Amino acid sequence: xxxxxxxxxxxxxxxxLGLACFAGAGTALAQAYPAQPIRMVxxxxxxxTTDIIARQLAQRMSEKLRQPVVVENKSGANTVIGADAxxxxxxxxxxxxLTNDATFVLNPVVLPSVSYNVARDFAxxxxxxxxxxxxxxxxxxxxxxxxxxxxxxxxxxQALSYGxxxxxxxxxxxxxxxxxxxxxxLVHVPYKGSAPAVADVVGGQIxxxxxxxxxxxxxxxxxxxxxxxxxxxKRTRALPQVPTxxxxxxxxxNISAVYGVLAPAKVPxxxxxxxxxxxxxxxxxxxxxxxxxxxxxxxxxxxxxxQFARYIETQTQQTRKVVSLSGVKVE
Length: 331
Hints:
- The protein has 331 residues and is an alpha/beta fold.
- It has 2 domains: 30-130 and 257-326, Bordetella uptake gene, domain 1 (D-Maltodextrin-Binding Protein, domain 2); 134-253, Periplasmic binding protein-like II (D-Maltodextrin-Binding Protein, domain 2, 3-Layer(aba) Sandwich), CATH 3.40.190.10.
- The chain is built from 12 helices and 11 strands.
- It has a 6-stranded mixed β-sheet, sandwiched between helices. The protein has a 5-stranded mixed β-sheet with strand order 7-6-8-5-9, with helices on both faces.
- Strand 1 (38-42), helix 2 and strand 2 (69-73) form a beta-alpha-beta unit.
- Mean pLDDT is 89; it is low at 1-7.
């Protein structure tokens, strides 16, 4: 009797033919995709940094892919509403999520009942880049450094507050860390987005907030806001005189907003590869990056899908430590 593990020439040919057909199907799929418009969900309201980045990227992707890439805003619940909608969408490459790491790193750590699981429900497609978050105070406040701010706040316990963009958001975490590290007692005030928090800093209703740099450049230019520190490994070209959080003595607060594109889990690998290659090609276009990203303080990140997945995993582990240090809890 022939051993069931013995491969005859006929079975080997059949196996090789099957592999060839599978590889050919993947190549054909990549060449045919996209055959219809792509929906890019942004889990924030129009006008913010994420929305701006998404629309700039979508326009260029439309040109390269020769199909419309249409931005759809689905805001609410700390980005959970938009993310959940994409997680439940058909995994065909025609529904994408463009968001920042509040969605794919912070929420799973601070929101115990979050409806999605990043590893289970999403396929990382491509990182785009990171935008520095800054410590912003009123331009009229009599402080010029983080050290000055800590002394100012400590002299006024429970009399001052900081604004976040919602419970469990990155600014919430950063304000809680500042309280812990500086020994201050600032009261947390959650807002529905960055714009009202920034407006109340300008108006003097709250002491500070931690917005993405692009959203406040006009206020900084008009001297209505002062930036005391900026996240990132090095100073931003947009504000070269402002120290990093590490330079200011608060390295634990070095939290940036990292932006990326994800698709529903089980999307064909050929589609992921095509989208990743397209986005990386765009990030290689110096004119586009200078005009749309670098001018806003964004630093491009060109990662493969595997590298992006590892980044998410590593940052999630690091964020668990930071959240534990800050004492932030979201019910």
